[in-house]
Amino acid sequence: MADQEMLRQISDWKEKRRAVILAHNYQPGEIQDLADDLGDSLILSRKASRVDADVIVFCGVRFMAESAKILSPQKTVLLPRLDAGCPLADTITAEQVRSLKEQHPRAAVVCYVNSSAEVKAESDVCCTSSNALQVVQGVEAEDIIFVPDQNLGHYVSRFTEKHIILWKGCCSVHHRIKAEDLQRVREAHPRAVVLVHPECRPEVVDLADEVLSTDGMLRAARRSEAGSFIIGTEMGLIYRLQKENPGKKFYSVGRLMICVNMKKIGPEDVLRALQKDQFDISIPEDVARRARGALDRMLQYV
Q1: Out of 42-56, 116-130, 223-237, which region has the weakest mean confidence (pLDDT)?
Q2: Residue 252 has what pLDDT?
Q3: Is the pTM of this model over 0.85?
Q4: CATH homologous superfamily for 4-84+262-283?
Q5: What's the confidence (pLDDT) of residue 302?
Q6: Cα separation of 194 and 40, whole Å?
Q7: Where in the chain is the domain with CATH 3.40.50.10800?
Q8: Cα–Cα distance between 68 and 72 in angstroms, integer?
Q9: CA distance 60 to 64
Q10: Inter-residue contact 36 to 21 (CB < 8 Å)
Q11: CA–CA distance, 32 with 10 (Å, rounded to integer)
């Protein structure tokens, strides 16, 4: 845990650098507590582009910091741990996207934001877990190359007649949940409302009461009259859910719902980032320009 002296130093350096700290919902509780704003990757990137600050300390993983930099090219965007990556984003490269486009020349590429800047640059439009269906329905093409998350793409395919060409990537944390895991927790808490992320396996999605993004889960918990919930996403969200809804109970579908990369950043890393510009995100101009086009087109559907 961060001691008071470290928190004081972080506060002083934030003021000195005209910086803000943004943290993803999956970050450790101590990082959530010291952040100026919380949210999912898209919400935080949009806030980064609007906030009156010179420096953005992005507590998340690399693709999120890249998106913030793409949307805020004039600002310094720092990722406190350079090794905070995303295995899902790493399942596909720009070269592989180009190969898919050659194989399916009539298809449009819809790219989940959980991807590298280079992959976004090869895509027609990005999407989030909350607007993926709207994006797919909105593009003119009838054939859709959906990268990189096959579970999210499969979920979208349930609600459209378009032909969805899936890339076989997945979030290891969400894909780890099995139907029997959810059934076991549901038996222990039969009155709990089940909220799962669309990155989960199809058979897990089938058992849910609602399928929502992390931001959608936060809204659902606030508005619901239910007193308990089973949460099918990374456990970091439960910290925020419990903090914002102290009278309600939240249960994880399992003890393994931890993204190691999302847990790498600590207060000492945030302090070093502010003191030493660790680690300044830089994206080649051509890649950033094309990736921004895909992100800007996505924002029409938010």
Answers
A1: 42-56
A2: 96
A3: yes
A4: NadA-like (3.40.50.10800)
A5: 65
A6: 20
A7: 4-84+262-283, 89-170+287-299, 177-256
A8: 6
A9: 6
A10: yes
A11: 14
Tell whether the model's pLDDT for residue 45 goes beyond 90: no
What are the residues whose beta carbons fall under 8 Å from the beta carbon of 221, sequence distance 6 or more? 195, 229, 241, 244, 245, 248, 250
Q: Which CATH class is domain 177-256?
A: alpha beta
Of 290, 261, 266, 194, the residue nearest 233 (C-alpha): 194
Q: Is 40 left (phi over 0), alpha (psi -120 to 50) or beta?
A: beta
- The torsion angles phi and psi of 252, rounded to 5 degrees, stand at -80, 155
Is residue 152 predicted with pLDDT exceeding 60? yes
Residue at token pair 């830089």: 282
What's the token pair of residue 115? 């991807």
Instruction: Report d(CA 247, CA 262) in Å as an integer.
Output: 27
At the topology level, CATH places domain 89-170+287-299 in Rossmann fold (3.40.50)
* Gap between the Cα atoms of 259 and 299, Å rounded: 27
Quick check: bond before 28 cis, omega within 30? no
pLDDT band of residue 256 (cuts 50, 70, 90) is confident
Average pLDDT over residues 282-289: 97
Q: Any idea which of 90-94, 117-121, 298-302 has the lowest mean pLDDT?
A: 298-302
